[in-house]
Amino acid sequence: MDMLMALAISIGVLIALWVKVGGMLSLAVPAGIIAWACFYAAGGKVQGLQKTIAANLAGVIWVWIAMTVIAAANLGGIAWVIIGIVAFLIVIQAKLPALSFIPGGFCGAAVTAWAAPADAKGYVMVMVALVAGAVLGYISEAAGGMMAKKA
Model pTM? Predict the structure, then answer.
């Protein structure tokens, strides 16, 4: 079996399980799938896993800070400025090797702004889903590799 077919099988099976289990645990299932895609976009392997998790979680943290500042200082009228600053910071943090996967930062930020309820538990649940998705990406890559080698 070629690698693409092996990946298709491993990803299909694991995503089906993720949708079932993640939903039962009230996790942000789409966030996990986005992190999974980030894993592959970051090049896969251990380095892709590390970059995805670091960048995704940094994106969550930047949005968390921004939303906290906007709410605490009643800055809703200029929230767009705060979000612009967050976008700047997501890009500039790429000077650090662990945070150099810029798309991962934006994916983490966007899925947080979209999926997280505005409380600490919501942000944590998105973070858990992002880490789980990246790890599932790593597992799917390893499983696909094993299936391709056996064939």
Answer: 0.93
